[in-house]
Hints:
Layout: E1 4-5, H1 11-18, H2 33-42, H3 52-55, H4 58-63, E2 68-73, E3 79-84, E4 92-95, E5 101-105, E6 108-113, E7 119-123, H5 125-137, E8 141-151, E9 155-175, E10 178-190, E11 195-202, E12 208-216, E13 220-226
Antiparallel strand pairs: 1-7, 2-3, 2-13, 3-4, 4-5, 5-6, 7-8, 8-9, 9-10, 10-11, 11-12, 12-13
Amino acid sequence: MEMITFSRIFFVSLLLLMTACSSSHDNHGRLTMADVWALALRSGEAQKPFNPRKDITRAMIDVSKTPLILIETLESDYIATIQKAPIPTLADVWITTKGRSITTQNGLLTATRGFNHDMMGANTKAASAALKKAPQLNRPIKYTRSYKYLVADNKDEIINLHCKLSFFGHETIILFQKRYKTRKYIEHCLNDYLEFENIFWLQRNNTIRKSHQWHSVNIGMILIERLI
């Protein structure tokens, strides 16, 4: 079983993120790259009245070329826009100003740090392969999944599940005023005591543009939107 785990991201990574935020508006009054990321980083730990969905526009997003995602815990009020940390890793690490991070590989959630109940790692190899093969097979794909957590006395808890990925049609989604044509897939996972469904909206190039992904019993589902 291939289990992907990641160490805590050091605060120096955050300092690297902020180096781009030293300038202000240009002579014509347009938003510079620094302005956009200052706003994105400010929303990294959203506090009322600031709300990324209301205060960040598509024009701001389009100015930048740096990868940016929006995450939202669907069973609580946490919402944040997070940019990719500029550090070499085997997966994509997205980190907020207060050190919270989520890690994805090919768009699939593999780890979190800084949340109340972190996912230490997840085996996403079979799910990733299924998403790539699904358009050609035109039938549900079955496989196993596993999630790893740290529990009392620093012991590992590994949750194994049987999953089935099914195609649920074509759908056009809108993220910050931009339309994306996608294929919608639902991944149904269960074991003897747990059951949930992940939802993926894939573009033609297999980019997961939007997803609802299960994190844990404590946190529930996390919405992830790839903005850039």
